[in-house]
Amino acid sequence: MATLVTFHAHPDDECISCGGVMRKAADEGHRVVLVVATRGELGEVQDGFLADGEELWTRRVLETHAAADILGVSRVEFLGYQDSGMMGDPTNDGPDTFWQASVEEAANRLAAILTQESADVLTIYDDNGGYGHPDHIQVHRVGARAAELAGTPRVYQATVNRDEMRRRMAEARAAGDESFGPPEDIEMGKPEIELTAAVDVTKYLDTKRAAMRAHASQIAEDSFFLAIPDEGFAMAFGTEYFIRAGQGAGITETDIMEGL
């Protein structure tokens, strides 16, 4: 048995980008630990969703634990930073936000958990945080440094296959679906040549969707994640992509826990 620690910026990020590999690792007998940098205080919530006097962060912590149970997580930890909001928002400048945190100080917090758990594998995000969110970028910086401090041997950067996304958008537009912009405008994720691991998680799609549903304050029933037909959901979320530094160019791995 090995230990997978998966590090994320906000509640609900875990099930979207790594839900499949988390459940897969748990089912194969590995220990799965979820670490979240913030409690998602700045998430958007529909009017009337929260009870009178209830704060969003308290609900999101509860949702995280519920989703973690679905994904087979053995331990959930929050690093205690505040949500920074989207890039360019005034909230980015808050002194207690994750974006403003010292990378070294935050990395030491995470490294302490990695050391306690004798972590074999750590997942973080790519260097642009997938789509440029400041807290996601900080996950990359903090996670990479924490792995150095703790000596964690395998670090995988969760990302999106940009080229695949552009191909599918082009196909949709060619079929008459004008709901997408020009495919070449998409800058999310990384080019296919930079990816080193592609994990087929189609076996865990129902579990992944159930974990998303547990984050009801952020992922409503009519949202893209839950309203999209099963076929479309499988296309969008059936493979989880990663970059492992030092592996060269091109996909050579199909299981981030292989050999452990």
CATH superfamily: LmbE-like
Annotated CATH topology: Rossmann fold
Instruction: Provide the structure class.
Output: alpha/beta
CATH secondary-structure class? Alpha Beta
In round numbers, the mean pLDDT is 94
- Strand order across the biggest sheet? 3-2-1-4-5-7-6
**Oligomeric assembly:** single chain
Largest sheet: 7 strands, mixed
User: What is the tally of beta strands?
Assistant: 7
Give the termini separation.
7 Å
Q: How many distinct folded domains? A: 1
What proportion strand? 15-25%
Run of helices and strands: EHEHEHEHEHEHHHE
Total helix count? 8
Radius of gyration: 18 Å
What does this structure look like?
This protein is α/β, with parallel strands linked by helices and 260 residues long. It has one domain (3-159, 190-243): LmbE-like (Rossmann fold). 38% of the residues lie in helices and 16% in strands. It has 8 helices and 7 strands; from the N terminus they run βαβαβαβαβαβαααβ. It has helices spanning 13-27, 56-71, 103-117, 134-150, 162-174, 205-214, 224-227, 230-237, and strands at 3-8, 31-38, 75-81, 121-125, 154-159, 197-200, 239-243. α2 (56-71) links the parallel β2 and β3. The mean pLDDT is 94.
Quickly list its features.
single chain; 260 residues; alpha/beta; Rossmann fold; seven-stranded mixed sheet; 7 strands; 16% strand; globular
